[in-house]
Fold each of these.
Amino acid sequence: MIGFFLTTLISALGLLVVDLVVPGVTIATFPAALLAAIAIGLVNGSIKPILSILTLPINFLTLGTFSFVLNGVCFWLASLLVPGFAVHGFLAMILAPVVLSFTSTFLNKYFAEKRIGQPIAGTSSNSTLEAGQ
Protein backbone atom coordinates (compact mmCIF):
# COMPACT_ATOMS: atom_id res chain seq x y z
CA MET A 1 0.00 0.00 0.00
CA ILE A 2 2.88 2.36 0.75
CA GLY A 3 4.29 1.53 -2.68
CA PHE A 4 1.12 2.78 -4.38
CA PHE A 5 1.20 6.06 -2.46
CA LEU A 6 4.91 6.52 -3.12
CA THR A 7 4.48 5.81 -6.83
CA THR A 8 1.58 8.26 -7.02
CA LEU A 9 3.58 10.90 -5.17
CA ILE A 10 6.58 10.40 -7.48
CA SER A 11 4.33 10.67 -10.54
CA ALA A 12 2.76 13.86 -9.16
CA LEU A 13 6.21 15.36 -8.55
CA GLY A 14 7.20 14.32 -12.06
CA LEU A 15 4.11 16.04 -13.44
CA LEU A 16 5.10 19.24 -11.68
CA VAL A 17 8.49 19.02 -13.40
CA VAL A 18 6.69 18.45 -16.72
CA ASP A 19 4.64 21.59 -16.00
CA LEU A 20 7.87 23.57 -15.61
CA VAL A 21 9.76 22.08 -18.57
CA VAL A 22 7.19 21.42 -21.30
CA PRO A 23 5.36 24.41 -22.74
CA GLY A 24 1.71 23.57 -23.31
CA VAL A 25 1.25 21.48 -20.17
CA THR A 26 -0.35 23.26 -17.22
CA ILE A 27 -1.05 21.92 -13.77
CA ALA A 28 -2.83 24.33 -11.47
CA THR A 29 -2.14 22.85 -8.00
CA PHE A 30 -0.41 19.94 -6.30
CA PRO A 31 -3.75 18.18 -5.61
CA ALA A 32 -4.45 18.45 -9.35
CA ALA A 33 -1.06 16.81 -9.97
CA LEU A 34 -1.97 13.97 -7.59
CA LEU A 35 -5.31 13.45 -9.35
CA ALA A 36 -3.55 13.63 -12.72
CA ALA A 37 -1.07 10.96 -11.63
CA ILE A 38 -3.95 8.68 -10.65
CA ALA A 39 -5.79 9.45 -13.90
CA ILE A 40 -2.69 8.69 -15.99
CA GLY A 41 -2.32 5.38 -14.17
CA LEU A 42 -5.96 4.50 -14.78
CA VAL A 43 -5.83 5.45 -18.46
CA ASN A 44 -2.56 3.56 -18.96
CA GLY A 45 -3.99 0.52 -17.22
CA SER A 46 -7.38 0.42 -18.90
CA ILE A 47 -7.51 2.28 -22.23
CA LYS A 48 -3.90 2.05 -23.40
CA PRO A 49 -3.86 -1.77 -23.81
CA ILE A 50 -6.92 -1.58 -26.06
CA LEU A 51 -5.42 1.25 -28.11
CA SER A 52 -2.13 -0.65 -28.35
CA ILE A 53 -3.86 -3.63 -29.90
CA LEU A 54 -5.88 -1.48 -32.29
CA THR A 55 -2.81 0.46 -33.45
CA LEU A 56 -0.48 -2.54 -33.65
CA PRO A 57 -0.27 -2.49 -37.48
CA ILE A 58 0.64 1.22 -37.50
CA ASN A 59 3.14 0.68 -34.72
CA PHE A 60 4.66 -2.21 -36.66
CA LEU A 61 4.97 -0.15 -39.86
CA THR A 62 6.60 2.75 -38.00
CA LEU A 63 9.00 0.41 -36.18
CA GLY A 64 7.57 1.36 -32.79
CA THR A 65 7.75 5.12 -33.08
CA PHE A 66 3.96 5.39 -33.15
CA SER A 67 4.04 4.42 -29.47
CA PHE A 68 5.14 8.01 -28.73
CA VAL A 69 1.86 9.18 -30.26
CA LEU A 70 -0.07 6.53 -28.33
CA ASN A 71 1.54 7.64 -25.04
CA GLY A 72 0.70 11.23 -25.90
CA VAL A 73 -2.93 10.39 -26.62
CA CYS A 74 -3.23 8.59 -23.27
CA PHE A 75 -1.60 11.56 -21.52
CA TRP A 76 -4.06 13.91 -23.25
CA LEU A 77 -7.03 11.67 -22.34
CA ALA A 78 -6.00 11.81 -18.70
CA SER A 79 -5.91 15.61 -18.91
CA LEU A 80 -9.56 15.58 -20.00
CA LEU A 81 -10.51 13.81 -16.76
CA VAL A 82 -8.79 16.13 -14.28
CA PRO A 83 -9.71 19.78 -13.74
CA GLY A 84 -6.58 21.90 -13.36
CA PHE A 85 -4.55 19.67 -15.70
CA ALA A 86 -4.40 20.63 -19.37
CA VAL A 87 -2.37 19.68 -22.42
CA HIS A 88 -2.30 22.12 -25.35
CA GLY A 89 -0.62 21.23 -28.63
CA PHE A 90 0.77 18.19 -30.38
CA LEU A 91 4.36 18.81 -29.28
CA ALA A 92 3.33 18.99 -25.63
CA MET A 93 1.25 15.83 -26.05
CA ILE A 94 4.30 13.94 -27.40
CA LEU A 95 7.06 15.47 -25.27
CA ALA A 96 5.32 15.47 -21.86
CA PRO A 97 5.14 11.65 -21.39
CA VAL A 98 8.83 11.37 -22.30
CA VAL A 99 9.83 13.99 -19.73
CA LEU A 100 7.51 12.38 -17.16
CA SER A 101 9.12 9.00 -17.77
CA PHE A 102 12.66 10.33 -17.29
CA THR A 103 11.68 12.32 -14.21
CA SER A 104 9.80 9.44 -12.60
CA THR A 105 12.67 7.05 -13.28
CA PHE A 106 15.14 9.46 -11.68
CA LEU A 107 12.92 10.01 -8.62
CA ASN A 108 12.25 6.27 -8.23
CA LYS A 109 15.98 5.54 -8.26
CA TYR A 110 16.63 8.37 -5.80
CA PHE A 111 14.03 7.11 -3.32
CA ALA A 112 15.21 3.51 -3.77
CA GLU A 113 18.79 4.54 -2.92
CA LYS A 114 17.55 6.38 0.17
CA ARG A 115 15.43 3.30 1.02
CA ILE A 116 12.33 5.42 1.40
CA GLY A 117 9.21 3.28 1.43
CA GLN A 118 11.09 0.10 2.26
CA PRO A 119 10.94 -1.66 5.63
CA ILE A 120 13.85 -1.11 7.98
CA ALA A 121 15.97 -4.23 8.47
CA GLY A 122 14.98 -6.17 11.55
CA THR A 123 11.49 -4.70 11.87
CA SER A 124 9.62 -7.26 9.78
CA SER A 125 8.33 -10.60 10.97
CA ASN A 126 10.89 -12.35 8.76
CA SER A 127 13.93 -10.78 10.41
CA THR A 128 15.65 -14.18 10.74
CA LEU A 129 15.33 -14.72 6.99
CA GLU A 130 16.74 -11.26 6.30
CA ALA A 131 19.73 -12.01 8.57
CA GLY A 132 20.62 -14.95 6.33
CA GLN A 133 19.65 -17.77 8.67
Amino acid sequence: MSAAPARHPRPIPARPAQPVRASQPQRSPQPQRSPQPQRRAPQAPGRHAHVRAVAAPEQARSLVPFAWTCALIIIGALSAVLLVNTSMAGGAYERRDLKIEIADLHEQKSALVTQLEQRSSPDNLGTAASDLGMEPAHQYGFLSLEDKIVIESGGK
Protein backbone atom coordinates (compact mmCIF):
# COMPACT_ATOMS: atom_id res chain seq x y z
CA MET A 1 0.00 0.00 0.00
CA SER A 2 2.53 2.57 -1.01
CA ALA A 3 1.47 5.65 -2.86
CA ALA A 4 3.72 7.07 -5.53
CA PRO A 5 5.64 9.99 -4.01
CA ALA A 6 5.14 13.44 -5.45
CA ARG A 7 8.01 14.64 -7.58
CA HIS A 8 8.11 18.18 -6.30
CA PRO A 9 5.73 19.98 -3.97
CA ARG A 10 6.29 23.42 -5.50
CA PRO A 11 6.80 24.42 -9.12
CA ILE A 12 10.18 25.61 -10.31
CA PRO A 13 9.96 28.90 -12.24
CA ALA A 14 10.75 28.62 -15.92
CA ARG A 15 14.08 29.96 -17.08
CA PRO A 16 13.73 33.24 -18.97
CA ALA A 17 14.90 33.27 -22.52
CA GLN A 18 18.19 35.05 -23.12
CA PRO A 19 17.72 38.36 -24.87
CA VAL A 20 19.50 38.80 -28.11
CA ARG A 21 21.81 41.81 -28.07
CA ALA A 22 22.29 43.91 -31.08
CA SER A 23 26.01 44.34 -30.48
CA GLN A 24 26.65 40.61 -30.65
CA PRO A 25 26.11 38.93 -33.99
CA GLN A 26 24.41 35.59 -33.88
CA ARG A 27 26.72 32.69 -34.44
CA SER A 28 25.83 29.44 -35.88
CA PRO A 29 26.89 26.48 -33.82
CA GLN A 30 30.27 25.21 -34.95
CA PRO A 31 32.22 22.31 -33.64
CA GLN A 32 35.06 23.22 -31.37
CA ARG A 33 38.50 22.80 -32.87
CA SER A 34 40.80 23.03 -29.90
CA PRO A 35 40.73 20.69 -26.89
CA GLN A 36 41.29 23.66 -24.54
CA PRO A 37 38.26 25.51 -23.20
CA GLN A 38 37.68 28.99 -24.55
CA ARG A 39 38.31 31.85 -22.18
CA ARG A 40 35.74 34.50 -21.66
CA ALA A 41 36.53 38.12 -21.49
CA PRO A 42 36.42 39.55 -17.97
CA GLN A 43 33.13 41.25 -17.11
CA ALA A 44 32.64 44.44 -15.23
CA PRO A 45 31.97 44.02 -11.51
CA GLY A 46 28.30 43.82 -10.59
CA ARG A 47 27.23 42.36 -13.91
CA HIS A 48 26.36 38.73 -14.12
CA ALA A 49 25.63 36.92 -17.31
CA HIS A 50 22.17 35.61 -16.51
CA VAL A 51 23.22 33.79 -13.33
CA ARG A 52 20.44 32.83 -10.97
CA ALA A 53 20.00 30.45 -8.06
CA VAL A 54 17.91 27.41 -8.73
CA ALA A 55 16.35 25.41 -5.90
CA ALA A 56 17.34 21.79 -5.82
CA PRO A 57 14.40 19.45 -6.12
CA GLU A 58 13.34 18.14 -2.75
CA GLN A 59 13.56 14.44 -2.19
CA ALA A 60 10.22 12.73 -1.77
CA ARG A 61 9.95 11.48 1.80
CA SER A 62 8.09 8.38 2.72
CA LEU A 63 5.65 8.43 5.63
CA VAL A 64 6.15 4.74 6.40
CA PRO A 65 8.93 5.17 9.05
CA PHE A 66 6.93 7.90 10.77
CA ALA A 67 3.79 5.75 10.75
CA TRP A 68 5.72 2.75 12.15
CA THR A 69 7.20 4.95 14.88
CA CYS A 70 3.78 6.28 15.85
CA ALA A 71 2.29 2.79 15.83
CA LEU A 72 5.11 1.44 18.04
CA ILE A 73 4.69 4.32 20.49
CA ILE A 74 0.94 3.68 20.73
CA ILE A 75 1.41 -0.08 21.13
CA GLY A 76 4.07 0.50 23.80
CA ALA A 77 1.84 2.92 25.70
CA LEU A 78 -1.13 0.55 25.59
CA SER A 79 1.07 -2.36 26.72
CA ALA A 80 2.38 -0.31 29.63
CA VAL A 81 -1.18 0.62 30.69
CA LEU A 82 -2.24 -3.03 30.44
CA LEU A 83 0.76 -4.17 32.51
CA VAL A 84 0.13 -1.55 35.22
CA ASN A 85 -3.58 -2.39 35.32
CA THR A 86 -2.87 -6.12 35.62
CA SER A 87 -0.37 -5.62 38.43
CA MET A 88 -2.80 -3.33 40.27
CA ALA A 89 -5.57 -5.92 39.96
CA GLY A 90 -3.23 -8.59 41.34
CA GLY A 91 -2.33 -6.26 44.21
CA ALA A 92 -6.03 -5.67 44.92
CA TYR A 93 -6.67 -9.43 45.19
CA GLU A 94 -3.68 -9.83 47.49
CA ARG A 95 -4.91 -6.92 49.63
CA ARG A 96 -8.39 -8.51 49.88
CA ASP A 97 -6.86 -11.84 50.95
CA LEU A 98 -4.73 -10.13 53.59
CA LYS A 99 -7.77 -8.28 54.98
CA ILE A 100 -9.65 -11.59 55.27
CA GLU A 101 -6.68 -13.17 57.02
CA ILE A 102 -6.42 -10.22 59.44
CA ALA A 103 -10.14 -10.52 60.26
CA ASP A 104 -9.69 -14.26 60.95
CA LEU A 105 -6.71 -13.57 63.21
CA HIS A 106 -8.72 -10.96 65.15
CA GLU A 107 -11.49 -13.54 65.69
CA GLN A 108 -8.94 -16.12 66.89
CA LYS A 109 -7.40 -13.56 69.25
CA SER A 110 -10.76 -12.63 70.77
CA ALA A 111 -11.64 -16.34 71.20
CA LEU A 112 -8.29 -17.00 72.93
CA VAL A 113 -8.69 -13.96 75.22
CA THR A 114 -12.18 -15.15 76.20
CA GLN A 115 -10.86 -18.67 76.88
CA LEU A 116 -7.99 -17.26 78.97
CA GLU A 117 -10.36 -15.13 81.06
CA GLN A 118 -12.62 -18.13 81.67
CA ARG A 119 -9.77 -20.41 82.76
CA SER A 120 -8.19 -17.78 85.01
CA SER A 121 -11.33 -17.26 87.10
CA PRO A 122 -10.91 -18.38 90.77
CA ASP A 123 -13.58 -21.09 90.55
CA ASN A 124 -12.01 -22.69 87.49
CA LEU A 125 -8.50 -22.43 88.96
CA GLY A 126 -9.61 -24.25 92.13
CA THR A 127 -11.33 -26.99 90.14
CA ALA A 128 -8.30 -27.47 87.89
CA ALA A 129 -5.98 -27.62 90.93
CA SER A 130 -8.06 -30.26 92.67
CA ASP A 131 -8.19 -32.26 89.42
CA LEU A 132 -4.39 -32.25 89.45
CA GLY A 133 -4.31 -33.59 93.02
CA MET A 134 -3.58 -30.34 94.83
CA GLU A 135 -5.13 -29.55 98.20
CA PRO A 136 -6.03 -26.23 99.69
CA ALA A 137 -3.27 -24.83 101.89
CA HIS A 138 -3.84 -24.58 105.67
CA GLN A 139 -1.03 -22.13 106.15
CA TYR A 140 0.35 -19.39 103.99
CA GLY A 141 4.05 -18.89 103.55
CA PHE A 142 6.70 -17.16 101.49
CA LEU A 143 9.92 -18.40 99.96
CA SER A 144 13.18 -16.57 100.46
CA LEU A 145 15.36 -17.27 97.45
CA GLU A 146 18.47 -15.76 99.01
CA ASP A 147 18.36 -17.91 102.14
CA LYS A 148 16.45 -20.80 100.55
CA ILE A 149 13.98 -21.06 103.42
CA VAL A 150 10.20 -21.02 103.78
CA ILE A 151 8.83 -18.24 105.93
CA GLU A 152 5.48 -19.16 107.37
CA SER A 153 3.08 -16.38 108.07
CA GLY A 154 0.32 -18.20 109.84
CA GLY A 155 -2.84 -20.19 109.33
CA LYS A 156 -6.16 -19.60 107.71
Amino acid sequence: MSSTIASTTIHASAVLVGASAVLIRGPSGAGKSQLAFALIDAARSGRLRFARLIADDRVVIETHHGRLLVRPAPALAGLIEMRGIGIRRLPFEPMGVVSLVVDLAASDAARMPEPIAAATEINGIVLPRLGVAPEHEALPAVIACLATGARLPAQAPVVAMHHPS
Protein backbone atom coordinates (compact mmCIF):
# COMPACT_ATOMS: atom_id res chain seq x y z
CA MET A 1 0.00 0.00 0.00
CA SER A 2 1.41 3.37 -1.01
CA SER A 3 1.74 6.22 1.48
CA THR A 4 1.34 8.79 -1.29
CA ILE A 5 -1.96 10.02 -2.70
CA ALA A 6 -1.83 11.17 -6.33
CA SER A 7 -1.35 14.87 -6.79
CA THR A 8 -4.29 17.23 -7.37
CA THR A 9 -4.25 20.80 -8.64
CA ILE A 10 -6.44 23.30 -6.79
CA HIS A 11 -7.02 27.06 -6.94
CA ALA A 12 -5.06 28.38 -3.98
CA SER A 13 -1.83 30.13 -3.06
CA ALA A 14 0.91 28.92 -0.72
CA VAL A 15 3.75 30.58 1.15
CA LEU A 16 6.56 28.94 3.08
CA VAL A 17 6.69 30.72 6.45
CA GLY A 18 9.60 29.48 8.50
CA ALA A 19 9.73 25.73 7.95
CA SER A 20 6.03 25.22 7.14
CA ALA A 21 3.62 26.19 4.41
CA VAL A 22 0.47 28.27 4.73
CA LEU A 23 -2.15 27.20 2.19
CA ILE A 24 -4.44 30.09 1.25
CA ARG A 25 -7.85 29.23 -0.21
CA GLY A 26 -10.86 31.29 -1.15
CA PRO A 27 -13.05 32.35 -4.03
CA SER A 28 -11.73 34.38 -6.95
CA GLY A 29 -11.01 37.95 -5.85
CA ALA A 30 -10.89 37.10 -2.13
CA GLY A 31 -7.25 38.23 -1.82
CA LYS A 32 -5.20 35.02 -1.93
CA SER A 33 -2.35 36.64 -3.88
CA GLN A 34 -2.54 39.77 -1.74
CA LEU A 35 -2.19 37.75 1.47
CA ALA A 36 0.66 35.72 -0.03
CA PHE A 37 2.55 38.90 -0.91
CA ALA A 38 1.74 40.45 2.49
CA LEU A 39 3.32 37.45 4.24
CA ILE A 40 6.44 37.76 2.08
CA ASP A 41 6.56 41.50 2.79
CA ALA A 42 6.14 40.83 6.54
CA ALA A 43 9.37 38.81 6.41
CA ARG A 44 11.15 41.61 4.55
CA SER A 45 10.10 44.08 7.25
CA GLY A 46 11.05 41.75 10.13
CA ARG A 47 7.52 40.83 11.33
CA LEU A 48 8.24 37.23 10.30
CA ARG A 49 11.62 35.49 10.23
CA PHE A 50 11.25 34.01 6.76
CA ALA A 51 8.56 33.84 4.09
CA ARG A 52 8.85 32.89 0.44
CA LEU A 53 6.32 32.17 -2.26
CA ILE A 54 5.62 28.55 -3.08
CA ALA A 55 2.76 29.12 -5.52
CA ASP A 56 0.08 31.56 -6.54
CA ASP A 57 -3.30 30.90 -8.19
CA ARG A 58 -2.88 27.15 -8.64
CA VAL A 59 -1.08 24.72 -6.38
CA VAL A 60 -0.38 21.02 -6.63
CA ILE A 61 -1.16 19.12 -3.43
CA GLU A 62 -0.39 15.54 -2.49
CA THR A 63 -0.38 13.49 0.67
CA HIS A 64 2.88 11.79 1.53
CA HIS A 65 3.53 9.87 4.77
CA GLY A 66 0.72 11.64 6.63
CA ARG A 67 1.68 15.14 5.53
CA LEU A 68 0.09 17.44 2.98
CA LEU A 69 2.69 18.69 0.51
CA VAL A 70 2.15 21.73 -1.71
CA ARG A 71 4.06 22.64 -4.87
CA PRO A 72 3.63 25.25 -7.60
CA ALA A 73 1.82 24.32 -10.79
CA PRO A 74 4.78 24.01 -13.21
CA ALA A 75 3.56 26.67 -15.66
CA LEU A 76 3.14 29.23 -12.83
CA ALA A 77 6.26 28.56 -10.74
CA GLY A 78 7.70 31.82 -9.43
CA LEU A 79 4.81 33.96 -10.69
CA ILE A 80 2.37 36.00 -8.61
CA GLU A 81 -0.46 38.25 -9.74
CA MET A 82 -0.46 41.69 -8.18
CA ARG A 83 -3.87 43.28 -8.65
CA GLY A 84 -3.47 46.54 -10.53
CA ILE A 85 0.15 45.75 -11.47
CA GLY A 86 0.00 42.43 -13.29
CA ILE A 87 2.08 39.28 -13.16
CA ARG A 88 5.41 39.53 -11.36
CA ARG A 89 8.24 37.04 -10.87
CA LEU A 90 9.46 36.29 -7.33
CA PRO A 91 11.91 33.81 -5.82
CA PHE A 92 10.00 30.68 -4.84
CA GLU A 93 10.34 27.43 -2.95
CA PRO A 94 9.67 24.22 -4.87
CA MET A 95 7.69 22.54 -2.06
CA GLY A 96 6.36 22.94 1.46
CA VAL A 97 4.59 20.90 4.12
CA VAL A 98 1.26 22.55 4.98
CA SER A 99 0.81 23.43 8.65
CA LEU A 100 -2.02 25.99 8.39
CA VAL A 101 -4.95 26.44 6.01
CA VAL A 102 -6.36 29.95 5.67
CA ASP A 103 -9.83 30.25 4.15
CA LEU A 104 -10.54 33.78 2.94
CA ALA A 105 -14.11 35.06 2.66
CA ALA A 106 -15.15 32.19 4.93
CA SER A 107 -18.88 32.09 5.61
CA ASP A 108 -18.26 30.43 9.00
CA ALA A 109 -15.70 32.99 10.22
CA ALA A 110 -16.58 34.21 13.71
CA ARG A 111 -15.10 36.38 16.43
CA MET A 112 -14.90 33.32 18.66
CA PRO A 113 -14.94 30.35 16.25
CA GLU A 114 -16.35 27.00 17.25
CA PRO A 115 -13.80 24.16 17.47
CA ILE A 116 -15.28 22.56 14.35
CA ALA A 117 -14.24 25.65 12.34
CA ALA A 118 -10.62 25.44 13.53
CA ALA A 119 -9.80 22.29 11.59
CA THR A 120 -10.14 21.08 8.04
CA GLU A 121 -9.42 17.85 6.22
CA ILE A 122 -7.66 17.75 2.88
CA ASN A 123 -6.87 14.39 1.25
CA GLY A 124 -7.39 12.68 4.60
CA ILE A 125 -5.00 14.97 6.49
CA VAL A 126 -6.51 17.04 9.33
CA LEU A 127 -4.96 20.51 9.54
CA PRO A 128 -5.43 23.66 11.63
CA ARG A 129 -7.69 26.14 9.83
CA LEU A 130 -8.22 29.88 10.10
CA GLY A 131 -11.43 31.22 8.59
CA VAL A 132 -11.30 34.93 7.74
CA ALA A 133 -14.49 36.91 7.13
CA PRO A 134 -14.71 38.87 3.86
CA GLU A 135 -14.60 42.25 5.61
CA HIS A 136 -11.52 41.50 7.74
CA GLU A 137 -7.83 41.84 6.97
CA ALA A 138 -6.23 38.40 7.09
CA LEU A 139 -2.56 39.23 7.75
CA PRO A 140 -2.78 40.07 11.48
CA ALA A 141 -4.78 36.92 12.23
CA VAL A 142 -2.40 34.73 10.20
CA ILE A 143 0.65 36.20 11.95
CA ALA A 144 -1.05 35.66 15.33
CA CYS A 145 -1.80 32.01 14.43
CA LEU A 146 1.78 31.44 13.37
CA ALA A 147 3.25 33.24 16.41
CA THR A 148 1.13 31.27 18.88
CA GLY A 149 1.52 27.95 17.10
CA ALA A 150 -1.24 26.93 14.72
CA ARG A 151 -2.65 23.73 16.16
CA LEU A 152 -5.75 21.63 16.16
CA PRO A 153 -8.19 22.19 19.01
CA ALA A 154 -8.37 19.34 21.51
CA GLN A 155 -11.02 16.80 20.54
CA ALA A 156 -12.39 19.03 17.82
CA PRO A 157 -14.72 17.39 15.34
CA VAL A 158 -13.60 17.98 11.79
CA VAL A 159 -15.77 18.89 8.87
CA ALA A 160 -14.16 18.78 5.44
CA MET A 161 -14.30 22.24 3.90
CA HIS A 162 -14.28 22.04 0.13
CA HIS A 163 -13.68 24.96 -2.18
CA PRO A 164 -14.21 24.81 -5.92
CA SER A 165 -10.95 24.03 -7.65
